[in-house]
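Chain entry —
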Amino acid sequence: MTPAFSLGTDSLTLRRPSVAEGLALEEALLESICHGESDFGLVAWSPHDRALVMPRRHERLAGFPEAREALRERGWPIAFRSTGGTPVPQCPAVVNVALAQRCRVGSSAAHLEWGYHRLGDPWCEWLAELGVADPNLGEAPGAYCDGRFNVRIGERKLVGTAQRWRRVRGGKDMAMLAHGAMQVGETPEALVAVVNAFQDAIGDPQRFCPEAHIALEQVVPSLDLEAALPGLLVRLDEAV
């Protein structure tokens, strides 16, 4: 298959920014599409620090200042993102991949389900190529930030996915940013505990289950991730 776009060497490299810088990288990727500077972009990053990232609407919750302080004392400062959902831990055990693409209104590309498959199907193919059994898209009841298009191994969530859409300036086309956050290291128990600590601090009775999550190293413990990751990025580049 002829690639729809051409990836540069930088696009195949896993970046190691701070959480704040990584979120800004994704925003810049989407803005480049919105301004008509490019039609496609791809970035992979894993933060060198850590934060519990959530929609800014959480800032309006009763008890948020106390929860923020409680998380800070645990070594997990709070950061905000522009997509919805529940709080999600970002740390060196998480690899993020963001794909931005210009989509023509009225085409098959201009809807959410297409966007999730545009990101998730190549991700499943990559996992199968690594020897992972039963990679698929679906819900993972009990997981934090659950959704219909998690990338799962069996019925356990490996990658959380989200999207943002904006109109390209000066036209009718839309700019899509599809994002996936994959737990590669740590234990699900360790990251779920952080989210549940926030839930407890704000007085929300909902709790999330480690058993609903899985980390890639639990399935492929000998994987050289930085050597394998370009295979995922090339698949995302070539998908149509």
